[in-house]
């Protein structure tokens, strides 16, 4: 990997909301280059995460459950394929990509307090 390649990788890793980052990670997952993420491609990447979770002694969720969560996040126009345009419209694309590429960040998302953001917002309102 060259230095410019590393810089692109690092930028894409740190800000998965940016359109260029979404394109970067989408291309990484699109193994056959057809512009669509198939269920096979998603399962291919998730199987690596499953192996890592098992090595760490973490009880993994099944691919079917993960797939259901991911499709609920992305809401793709096609039922069994995800397009780049679907990902660019998804506000949770960072969680989607972390699910398949970054196990520590994925686990943070899974273990976060769903009410934490509400408490911060409520505290700001009370302080004003």
UniProtKB/TrEMBL annotation:
SUPFAM superfamilies: EF-hand. Residues 17-52 form the EF-hand domain. The keyword Calcium applies. GO terms for molecular function: calcium ion binding; protein phosphatase regulator activity. Keywords: Calcium. The keyword Ribosomal protein does not apply. GO terms for cellular component: protein phosphatase type 2A complex. InterPro entries: EF-hand-dom_pair (IPR011992), EF_Hand_1_Ca_BS (IPR018247), EF_hand_dom (IPR002048). This is Serine/threonine-protein phosphatase 2A regulatory subunit B'' subunit alpha.
């Amino acid at each position: 990997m060259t230095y410019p390649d590393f810089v692109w990788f690092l930028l894409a890793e740190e800000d998965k909301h940016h359109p260029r980052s979404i394109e970067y990670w989408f291309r990484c997952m699109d193994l056959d280059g057809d512009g669509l993420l198939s269920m096979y491609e998603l399962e291919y990447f998730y199987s690596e995460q499953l192996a890592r979770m098992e090595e760490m002694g973490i009880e993994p969720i099944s691919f079917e459950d993960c797939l259901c969560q991911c499709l609920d996040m992305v809401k793709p126009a096609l039922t069994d394929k995800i397009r780049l345009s679907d990902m660019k419209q998804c506000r949770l694309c960072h969680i989607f990509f972390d699910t398949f590429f970054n196990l520590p960040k994925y686990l943070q998302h899974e273990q976060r307090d769903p009410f934490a953001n509400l408490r911060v917002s409520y505290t700001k309102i009370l302080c004003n």
